[in-house]
Amino acid sequence: MKDSRTPNHQHSVEPSATALGTPRFLQGVFPFVGRGMFDPTPLDDALTYTVPEGRTAQLIYFRAGNHSEDLIYFSVMVDGVPVRYFPVGPKADVHVTLAILESVAAGKRLEICIAAPRGLAGAVVVDAGLLEKGPA
Would you state the pLDDT for residue 20? Predict the structure, then answer.
């Protein structure tokens, strides 16, 4: 039995290929301390994904929960450039199924960052679904 008090409680999901591609997941429960609303920072290494050679990837959905007392937001970065923003209110959650899907090329690094008011401490739940396709 896993200790639910650990700050980064995660489980592993073994993806299976579909006719559309191979699902990949960036997920877990993470503590954070805000550095400022204009300073999005990487949340955890578990929330990074580098697209393999000969493949492309698309962010299909994004779910997150915010256990803190203030508004935060997540930014999805590709090689350090923000491509999507997901605000989450205090003690709230969000589930976004993306209607516009951008392909992320092979070799690019996709990363989920967080921004929160300076000094705000809390925990978040993140579940982002990608579809890896290939060959590119």
Answer: 81
